[in-house]
Design a protein that fits this description.
With 237 residues, the chain is α+β, with helices and mostly antiparallel strands. The protein is 30% helix and 34% strand. The protein is built from six helices and 14 strands. Strands 8, 9, 10, 11, 12, 13 and 14 form a seven-stranded antiparallel beta sheet that branches. A five-stranded antiparallel beta sheet has the order 1-2-3-7-6. Strands 4-5 form a two-stranded antiparallel ribbon. Helix 1 runs parallel beside helix 6. The longest helix has 24 residues. The chain binds uridine-5'-diphosphate (UDP).
Length: 237
């Protein structure tokens, strides 16, 4: 597959055209941002880890029946994916209180919910990704009613699967963010990435944070934590 002109550069990834109009190449960067781009830095080796971890998880989800944009890994940092138009919603699923949930509702982190929660935010950097509900998303024509239902169904299924994959390796899946896209025929597929940048992952015994909160909160050992999750997932001892 030929990598052609750059189409887009985001905070953590670049996207390139290919010789196939239905496919693009995603290239993962080491750049990290937090708090809506206010905090910037680089995490050495992050691009490679997030590329490999996303591909590993997307393949397992696909095998379990969740359609994804994954096609094939090209190199340590680059992956061919199906071209989609991204539904401009960040879909956040939570199993345990943390981050903005704990802050917004004035509760401590670490409360285990009886059932997972879902929330949407509007993917719009200028507005700071404001929270919205289904009726707002419909009013803004960000997605149809059917698409929103499909997205929620997939998101909860992904949660059950991911929770299981993480539990097998001694990690509690606290919360995570997903993005979905539409293929040229309108089919909804899971897109973007699934990595310690987009999930909160706590060691089930020590409760050590193995995710981007190490960067957000200047806890140190960011790269080691990402590497540790990858090592456990792939079983390299
Ligand atoms: N998240 C993300 N991108 C965003 C916002 C959130 O990947 O733009 C992830 C975040 O890493 C966490 C989950 O979504 O795993 C919930 O994040 P939260 O709403 O608590 O916001 P935060 O505390 O990260 O600002």
């Amino acid at each position: 597959m030929e990598k052609r002109e750059q189409l887009y550069e985001g905070k953590a990834k670049k996207v390139f055209a290919t010789d196939d109009p239905e496919k693009v190449v995603v290239s993962y960067k080491d750049d990290a941002t937090a708090f809506n781009g206010e905090k910037k830095g680089t995490i050495a080796g992050k691009g490679v880890i997030n590329n490999k971890m996303t591909n590993h998880l997307m393949q397992r989800l696909e095998q379990a029946g969740v359609p994804t944009h994954y096609v094939e890994q090209l190199s340590d940092t680059d992956t061919v994916v199906k071209k989609v138009s991204i539904v401009p919603l960040e879909v956040i699923i939570r199993n345990i209180s943390a981050g903005s949930f704990a802050k917004r509702y004035g509760v401590e982190e670490g409360i285990v919910f009886d059932a997972p929660t879902v929330e949407f935010s509007y993917k719009n950097d200028d507005l700071g990704d404001p929270l919205l509900n289904d009726t707002h998303a419909l009013a803004l024509k960000l997605a149809t009613k059917e698409e929103i239902q499909q997205i929620k169904d997939y998101a909860f299924r992904v949660n059950e699967l991911l929770k299981g994959f993480m539990k097998e390796i001694g990690i509690d899946l606290v919360d995570f963010k997903l993005e979905f896209g539409r293929l040229s025929d309108g089919t909804i597929v899971l897109a973007d990435e699934i990595s310690p940048d987009t999930c909160r992952l706590w060691d089930e015994k020590t409760h050590e944070k193995l995710d981007k909160d190490r960067f957000r909160r200047d806890l140190g050992g960011v790269e080691d934590a990402y590497q540790e999750v990858m090592r456990r997932l792939t079983g390299d001892k």
